[in-house]
## 1
Amino acid sequence: MHPSIAADPFTISVADHELADLKQRLANTRFPNEPDGNDSWDYGTNLSYMERLIEYWRDDYDWRAAEARLNRFDHFRTTISGDDLGLPDEDHQIHFIYERGSGKNPRPLILTHGWPSTFAEFEHVIEPLAHPERFGGNEEDAFDVIVPSLLGFGFSSKPRTPLGPSAIAELWHCLMTRVLGYDRYCAQAGDWGSYVTSRLALQHGDQLDAIHLTMLPLRPAISGGGEPVTQEEADWIKNMRGWWAQEEGYRVIQGTKPMALAFAVTDSPAGLAGWLADKYYRLGDTEKSHPYEGMDQRFPMDMILTQLSIYWFTGTINSANTLYKAGPMERTDKLKPGERVAVPTAYSEYPMDVLPRTPESWGSRCYDIKRWRFMEKGGHFAALEEPEIFTRDVQDAFRELLGKI
Amino acid sequence: MSKPTPFTISIKQSKLDAIARKVRDFEWIDVPEGKDASDGWSYGADQTYLKEFCAYWLDGYDWRHWEAQLNSLPQFIATVNDIDIHYVHVKGSNPENPPLLITHGWPGSFFEFFDVLDRIANPAEYGGEEADGRDVIAPSIPGYAFSGRPQKPMGPRAVAALWNAFMRDALGIESYIAQGGDWGAIISGWIAFDHSKDKQGGCLAVHLNFLGVRGHMEPKTDEDQAWMQHSAGMQLFETAYLQIQGTKPLSLTMGMSDSPVGQAAWILEKFYTWGDVKNGDIESAFTKDHLLTNLMLYVATDTFNTATWMYRGVFEEGGVNLPPGETIDIPTGIANFPGDTVYSWPPRSMVEAGYSNIVQWTDHEKGGHFAALEQPDAFVADVMAFLKQAPTR
């Protein structure tokens, strides 16, 4: 217990009737057919994978075990008023795990997940980061670890007025400073979390010591006096565009008409799984030669079903998807001429699908890059896929960055 | 190739019960509020309307009534190239006239033509001339309603070849005229290009209420530029359905196949956006009974998934552009129903880049993407006027 903080202890506890309802829905699933002989994920989520996953979810997956495991951490919920922060007048409930680190002076570190992930992405790195000495590391590397659920995700509340990363960054800063009482802190993130963290660094950089990102969401101002794009950058941009043309269907629908999709994926657990599984397959460091073997190896069904179950039981798929509409509406991913993240930044790029490596020059346009790494393995969900590699890299990075201050 | 066999729609009661159960058990969701979500449809489907719609689905709508209505149309199944083709074939008052082949699109169905088929086939019964009548054939595209499923995604150009074989080999019709909107327009465009008489096909003329197959459109005037700009804007905000259906249909259809309300939301959003809807009221353009009957042809037939395959098929075929320098040269009729602001017609000169022989162009005052369903009178008048001047052999 932490009597000094302004937050209520929280325990995950899904009602029995919710579990029964889920099983019933899974049992009643109507699957689509697929093209004859389809053994790939070329048409989206593979049907044979889905049939196995849904059967396992219904018959074998143990939510109560996952719930108990996640409850080993101290969870809290705190109410933050948007009005106090210059946001639309609405009270937000922010859920977070708070693991105090070992030793005398652990540094506070807030880890932020993205879509289609949850706070549970960090399950296996929270203890090693908070208590490195228990995992063969050095107590001096310990962090106070704070893992929130993004607004609209997991056990945080669903905003009535959708909010984007700049607004969420204000909530995070309030959480770290007013609720938890820190003057200065560090932040780590990937995916949407990296966008929130980048905005945090732009909006409250004076109180951030360093950040570590596994995705670089900010876009530089090229026109209007920015450095012209190099050949290497131009090639990389062209590659990325080609990849996105095949992959971006999900983000376009979520970014324009999320409520056309919302009803099916809220009504159907198979629909939720079908919509999200392809992202793990595609963005994870997944061996892709078999319809499900590589997927099971990288993301065992128990692991992926815990992620999916959190979306399902909290009914947050629509509010989570809507971040793709609320985010761009803020228009804050593109920097203005001269604007740049001044907080020391470490970037670690994990291999993702067939994507080419990001040119470091591109990252340096938006961030004060102090450390730049290409990781050997682990994909878009690095903390989930390769928790040990991830932990070591985060420890090394902050040791390096903070030592330089 | 098999002889056409008569077909009657008969959805099992257990199927209807299972659908009703899922609609009844639907748990309504938390929806965003605020300035940008205030009109209810700006984020997609409007839950307030959807609640009213689903209540009527359960307690007001009578599928058996509409099933009987649909069965009042003479329907058949013919097998062509191993695919079962479901179609309506209304016999017309003047067998001398070449038949009309009329094709629906997505997310429509042959039901769009429910009120217009007999009026085109037998005009004398509706105040017209017996001599103007003809057979009218309205098939369901493979993967839709009661047609068979293709083994893998099939594109509109392949369907055009199938339709030509269907008309000639299964129905024994040597010469015909093609009509369509949405996919139906793209299929009809390819029929007009690939299967015209001078290419040894059977198509004499084509009537379109949607721009599908096209030539290389080069904007010259301010008006052309304005249309290009409008079109590019629509690309940004109105084509997500097309992208996801064209790239990863299975990621989408896992949920849709399992959720009748999910399908309703996905499909109604398109009727709302593409129909000639006034004052944000979808029922200014469509009745609930019409929306539901069309929807049930997806839900009750389990075809939501395969109906999306055309989007994948068209990508694999290489799109809707005519080969450089080539045009569709058979007599062409264009019906511009202005209520579809997403897929509005460009200025005539731009259309002529792909169609060298436009013999009729009508700008209507109202009606949208689903013209036959929205404005049956205007649709019939337009098609009849075109047929009157179309070649007969």
## 2
Amino acid sequence: MKYLRLMCLFVLVGCSSTPRPPPAVSEALADTELRIAPTVAAPLMNISLHEFASPLALDDSIYLVDSQLRSVEARLIPFKLRQALQRSGYWGAVRLMPGFDPAAELQLEGAILASSGTELKLSIKVTDAAGRRWLEATYSDAASDLDYMEEPDLAMDPFQDLYNRVANDLSLALAIKSETELNEIASTTTMRYAAGLASNVFGGYLRKEAGGLVLAGLPARDDPLFQAVQRVREAEYLFTDAVDEHYQSLHRQVGPTYAWWRYYNHELLRGNERLERIDATRGATKGSWYAVERVYKTFKDAKMNQDALRELTDSFDRETAPVVTEVAGRVVELSGSLQQQYALWRSILKDMYLEEIGR
Amino acid sequence: MLISLIIPASRLMSCLLLKRHLTFLVALMLFLPASGTSEESGFNDFQINFSGHWELDYQLSDHASEKIRRVYQEAKSKLEREMQRRGSYVDPSAFNLSSIVGLGRLAERIAQATVLDIEQDHNRIVINRNDDFALVCDLRFMQAQRSVLGAEACYWEEDQLVFQIALPDGLNVLHRLSIARDRSRINIATTLMLRGVRYPFTLNRVYMPYEPGEGLFQCEYTIARQTTCTLGSGGVEPE
């Protein structure tokens, strides 16, 4: 078995420096400008992006360093997309959340299918409150040496084209909706939220059909129970903003290290390709001590970079600072991971609603 | 013998095809150790615990220059014996004697750590080495894995934990960790193998436990607050 394992390792390393096949030209060369909204149209839809799923962490990256890296990507990449959507001006609040956000009109879910310094491939799905699909597509982009001409910085992402393409496709999906449709989605979102707090009171305003949720009616605006729901929903926005601030903090803190990791990863992959070419034409280089030591030094540098990233991500997971939010005259302190905080917050909101209606 | 199995980089296309066909086989073979017997995988309730603070025991550790000289002499004697046995001239370049020095010097740099800080639980082991990258092993998924450059694996061999790094140009590095029953010493045997070099080179580095003590400052790194250090029992001084 030991020899089998060794064989496997050698087979892996034998192929490890294989350059990836170049992506389609339309993906690699086309610069996509972000479409900016000419005027602010009402009503503005709010979008909540969920942390992305990262199947890579399970299937391809069994090393902890990698899985932590994927865990950071699952939060950083949607944050980049959030920025593009926000800049486009087509949307209301664009927030990044740990999971499903019942207060938002649109939910954007994604999965990272491939991610390295040279390639990014995402699967994106956008659904409205009624359950209708706005967008479902796979996007990929390849970074070139030009994208890494300068040292990485937070504002410049080598895969900005990809984020712009998603934002543009979504704004096109918005453009074909009538104002009536948009109003209906906004109302459906409100009633879905209300039904989530008190299904016995508000559940009847929504009907489930094959195409998704259908709005059956709306309560009176001065309905005290409905007004209580609106107040709880306002409180929800305070919390979602606080959660969103956490992701901004992650972006500021881990973003630069991640950008360096990508830069390094790109350099290593490209460097490998160059080494392959040099070896093919100048056999003398191969096997020299200089080449051997350079290979080890490059490996060591990359590993030390991974160490730094692991330390940062460890700290983030361990030390998610408590969220302190003042809601309706009370201060709520939440601790634990973001996911735990979010779950706790949902139960607090439900309690608040019961208090509001005096039960 | 094993080293010759490394696929030449120039055979890129055949490698790609081979890779495709071997994917299933490799995946299967890699799966076997993980689902094998506890004796083989070493998941014997994790009785082997390397955790703690360790510093180099210079007395018991190999000294690179001496080891290089010894391995060189042994190889040279072997060459001479071979010549005597055959009764004819044997080309010394076939024995690659000069490469022993290069390999030894590289091993010295790779095994340079003088302090180890090892964290181990049921899920993983992290061997932090001063001025070097950490050796990290996910104890739940001990499989060979492509890394940024080359491939890596960690696995148990009896009571020894082995880290194997296979890099381009035929360089292979093995770190073999073992610990004394009384936990008085850890040995890391670092072996370098290079394609075209007949002799692997092994450097043993022995570490003994030490207590890091509390120190004047207790520092902790957090993303939100960066590094914060506590002085004694009260004051907090940001770094």
